[in-house]
Amino acid sequence: MILKKLKKIAFIALATIAALPAAGQDLLASQAPIDRKMKAVDSVFLQKLIQTEEWESPAGDLYEEWDNIYAHRPTALPDTFRIDLRDFCMPTPSRVITSNFGARWGRQHKGLDIKVYIGDTIRAAFSGKVRMVKYEGKGYGKYVVIRHPNGLETIYAHMSKQLVRENQEVRAGDPIGLGGNTGRSTGSHLHFETRLCGVALNPALMFDFRNQDVTGDFYTYRKRTYQRDQALATQMRGANGLYGYNPADVNSPNVGKNGKKQAAQRSSRYHKVKKGETLFAIARKHGTTVDAICKLNRIGQKVKLRPGQILKY
After folding, report:
1. Residue 151 gets which letter from DSSP?
2. CA 136, 138, 143, 147: dihedral to nearest 10 degrees?
3. Neighbouring residues of 302: CB distance < 8 A, sequence distance ≥ 6
4. List of residues 6+ apart from 265 with CB closer than 8 A
């Protein structure tokens, strides 16, 4: 908004100069050395104006309003939109995706589930402004929504504790909460969403948790190719990293056919609990002990296991 006003002022100034007689233009020319000295000051002032506007309403040109009532309310998406992914921070150092974006259990799963433990630090993915800090018992649990100047809104759900407040400015990497198992959740994890104009985009298009990096300096959303792009992203950066499986172990040139199978088995260090399974059965299946599983997961031997719960072994 500020930039639009400045452009309008500049246009009016140029029109005025063009209409001046020669004497008036000579007077403006004699003022040039002073103008050059003021250029640096003007640039600093302009940057402060832009930063102030971004603080008041990040991505204000993209969103019509700022409210803390709805975690997401879809609005019209542009046909294309370029998202700046530089100056990012991975929200968690965990590399394990336990559930991908897309259809799941007869409904759409609008984000990625990343394995974290209760108390693990969750960080802001980009700098921005906290729009919501809420609790939803039948859904997100304790969650935080942040709007970023690059146009994205990120959602961090199922946390055990929120460390920020609404309308607070945060920088990429700032702690915003602690890992947990609140709301509709079958085990401690971070549910992470990336939304543009309230519409969920597959985080795997932008974040590569297995390599702890973004997919590039920029991601360009294109309405025409999005469905194909998001499916490919899940295939490349989601399913391959599911439950700790690391394709790099299998694709090594030093691993033979039999060795590839063994390497894949060694790299799979997470178990998803099935209905009726016990700690003893899981330990026997993976050649370990109940004590070792309890110690790794910080649980007691009498804990009640839930279907879908992720255990490290």
Report:
1. S
2. -80
3. none
4. none
Taking CA atoms, 219 is separated from 73, 143, 214, 296, in Å, by 22, 25, 9, 37
Q: Provide the residue type at 13 as one letter.
A: A
Say if CB 74 and CB 219 are below 8 A apart: no
CB atoms within 10 A of CB 26: 11
Distance CA 74, CA 88 (A): 24
Instruction: For the chain, report the end-to-end CA distance as a whole number of angstroms.
Output: 54
**Strand-strand pairing, 213-214 and 175-178:** unpaired
What DSSP state is assigned to residue 236?
I
- Residues of the chain with pLDDT > 70: what percent? 71
Rounded Cα–Cα distance for residues 274 and 252 (Å)? 32
The verdict on pTM exceeding 0.85 is: no
Tokens representing 85? Answer: 């992914």
Residue partners of 76: CB distance under 8 A and separation at least 6: 197
pLDDT digits (tens, 9 = 90+) for 129-159: 999 999 999 999 999 999 999 999 999 999 9
Q: Residue 170 in contact with residue 128, Cβ under 8 Å?
A: yes
Which has the closest alpha carbon to 100: 91, 111, 90?
A: 111
| Count of CB atoms situated within 10 Å of the CB of 235 | 12
pLDDT tens, residue by residue, 48-102? 655 565 566 678 788 888 888 899 989 889 999 999 999 999 999 999 999 898 8
> If you ran DSSP here, which 8-state letter would residue 21 be given?
-
